[in-house]
């Protein structure tokens, strides 16, 4: 066969041939050429013969041994250095994570209460809602330009032996204090403590409805998603008055419309107060299968709540009053003050004019006055209160004589019915409570239904605070909250309290307000009867409130 490859081409191909990188056709051509060419055959042989390894000399061997030992020492030194650096970095991380007192940037993680005595002594109590954090320190600072404003900074670390979750601290300033902040949130203003939830919402006030990020911060602080399911938003900003439409996924019945739209109105009013150039808020939802819009304007809100939006924005105190009036503060505020756990709830409750209390309870006035006149500090009783028992709800209601007061439609006859009254030194009635008690499940489940009201003679404001549970009665208890809506459309706050010890029963509380009356139900039960207690409570709620 004729070989067309030249020696130059073959020699160029030989390295690839030796490494088995050439094709079968090329291999055949190369091998044919090599059989015929002695020079190329010799070059191929040299390529395929391995180079001899020179014998080690004594000097070379000692050098190698030295290098091996040196390499081992260097490896040990490198490993030791790596270990030291790792331990150092770990120590720094551990210190900064568990011991270094870092400022707490998210104030929402603090549950606190601030009071100021004689306008100079500041006291703060609270706890961290993040159980992984511990309190590392509390700092106080004053604005140089406004020394009457004090900021409390809570510093935290990862909870460890060096940290604890609750805190209590006190500091006396040398000058009068007008405002106190906890981190970036207003906590006290001109004699009024500002609840954390109120402060969080107040901090979201913004000038423009077009700022959607700010809008969403307001909704988040309000906790509106806990009440309604929001599907989408739409802004009308082409002409004034600007409108914000909030589309809901919720479906309601005609029976629920009044209650639902009252809640929408309350949220809309606060949204208007938080958004300076907003003119109206619209909720779009489904009512009995049809899309329904509920619109609430700034003008409506200012007339109904007796104050302009600017007025409510002027101070945290006035803003908190608005939140109380709208019932927004009735959402639970988790509290673990002084190491205890529970819920603090604030609810609007209007006072009853004294003239509307027309029953024979007014005849107790002279008895109350005599109590105060005959009272001595050494007495084991306190003046100003009278308790009476009744055989029927009808008699108890007649004794009070308030037309708007109704009893509970209890599933069974009450074992006891009583009316408790408190009054001032002049005999003016301040507070009335109608209580009905019964038990079931062989006496293991105890039920108390109560209706409370405050008159214009009481020193309570337009809203009241309630703690669940009572910190003194049930220490270290844990409470959870939920809303319960009956078939008739009544919405109740339900608070389930689980005790942490065998010496206390668990409990469920439910309450709702109707203008001037706080209706509440308390059920105590052993932990193994929780489902039975829940069923009993829902039975009472579904029965509703009876006639007066």
Q: What Rg is obtained from the alpha carbons, in whole angstroms?
A: 40 Å
Number of domains: 5
Q: Overall pLDDT, averaged?
A: 81
Helix-strand category: alpha+beta
Strand order of the biggest β-sheet: 16-17-18-19-24-23-22-21
Net shape = elongated
Strand content: 25-35%
Total of helices: 13
Number of strands: 24
Distance between the termini: 124 Å
Give the low-pLDDT segments. 331-342, 470-475
Largest sheet: 8 strands, antiparallel
Task: Report helical residue fraction.
Answer: 25-40%
Structural account:
- It is a single chain.
- The protein has helices at residues 7-18, 24-36, 38-48, 58-99, 196-202, 212-222, 257-274, 298-304, 309-313, 316-326, 365-374, 393-400, 530-543, and strands at residues 102-103, 110-117, 121-128, 133-142, 149-158, 166-172, 179-182, 185-189, 192-193, 230-236, 242-252, 278-287, 290-297, 333-335, 342-348, 385-390, 416-423, 429-440, 445-454, 463-468, 478-485, 491-498, 506-514, 517-525.
- The protein is α+β, with helices and mostly antiparallel strands and 548 residues long.
- It has an eight-stranded antiparallel sheet, with helices on one face. Strands 1, 4, 5, 7, 8 and 9 form a six-stranded mixed sheet that branches.
- Helix 1 (7-18) packs parallel to helix 3 and helix 7 runs antiparallel to helix 10.
- The chain is elongated.
- The N and C termini lie far apart (124 Å).
Keywords:
548 residues, alpha+beta, 5 domains, eight-stranded antiparallel sheet, 24 strands
In brief:
This protein is of the alpha+beta class. The protein is built from 13 helices and 24 strands.
